[in-house]
Design brief:
The chain is an alpha+beta fold. It has helices at 2-38, 48-55, 64-69, 112-127, 141-155, 158-164, 199-207, 238-243, 245-257, and strands spanning 94-99, 106-110, 132-136, 178-183, 213-215, 231-234. Helix 5 crosses helix 6. Bound molecules: zinc ion.
Length: 264
């Protein structure tokens, strides 16, 4: 009998504990619901800047320059004739081809829509017996930093270097919407002014616009950057237009001032 009473006491205790747990859970749910009603809009996704920062490659000790170029481009002013561009975080970046060979061979990428347009352009040129080859597509800020430092050493000053190469954080190549092109039949003209005399350049001058591409740095461009017949940017979509809005607006303004004469 004593044993039976003891068991009953245990059951009662277990029942009360269970009841208390249920009451507590219900109150918690109710309190959370009320709290949500009065809470200031919960953040469902981090702002784009936060995503950009969190997906950026972490660097062990960022130099002050790197820290500056990571800031949103709208907060930055042009530098030595170059407009600020953010490093693309585009996950749709695709390969557009290969350049050079053996240990120097590299594989170049562009954003999907620029890459598709470039494919159309390359195949249309091929139909006209012209071989257009991409030399350089997307470039990270880190890669540009290396190129720019080499250029400063070669040219002796930052101002002189900037005429040839954009400072890191200011290259159109960061966007994945700009590409250096060459003629597959005359590699000696790669990234030289001689390229302007190649079949590929002649074809591009006549047809690139049909595929949404334009020369970024024509002769005597308003940015004061050296003539780059090989460097083309894609402006054939709303996103592309937005990316190059500032550079294009100022160049068009200048076009109008020169009595509608095309700077190109
Ligand atoms: Zn370029």
């Amino acid at each position: 009998m004593k044993q039976f009473k003891k068991v009953r006491r245990y059951y009662r205790l277990a029942f009360i504990t269970l009841l208390a747990a249920i009451v507590l859970s219900i109150s918690w749910v109710a309190i959370s619901a009320v709290a949500k009603l009065f809470a200031p809009g919960p953040a469902t996704a981090p702002p784009p800047e936060a995503i950009a920062v969190s997906t950026a490659t972490p660097s062990a000790s960022p130099s002050p320059e790197t820290a500056i170029v990571k800031a949103p481009e709208s907060d930055r002013q042009p530098k030595l004739g170059h407009f600020p561009y953010s490093e693309s975080q585009d996950l749709d970046m695709v390969y557009i081809g290969s350049y050079a060979e053996k240990e120097n061979q590299r594989f170049e990428k562009l954003s999907l829509e620029a890459a598709l347009a470039l494919m159309k352009l390359i195949y249309a040129a091929r139909d006209d017996n012209t071989w257009i080859v991409p030399v350089s597509g997307f470039r990270s800020i880190e890669q540009q930093e290396k190129l720019y430092k080499d250029q400063i050493q070669r040219r002796g000053s930052e101002t002189e270097a900037a005429k040839i190469s954009a400072p890191p954080g200011y290259s159109e190549h960061h966007t994945g919407y700009a590409v250096d092109l060459t003629d597959g039949n005359s590699h000696l003209t790669d990234l030289t002014y001689k390229f302007a005399e190649s079949d590929a350049f002649r074809w591009l001058s006549q047809h690139a616009r049909e595929y949404g591409f334009e020369l970024s740095f024509p002769q005597n461009n308003f940015q004061g950057v050296s003539y780059e017949p090989w460097h083309w940017r894609f402006v054939g979509s709303p996103k592309a237009e937005e990316i190059f809005k500032q550079a294009r607006a100022e160049s068009h303004q200048l076009d109008r001032k020169s009595n509608g004469k095309d700077v190109l």
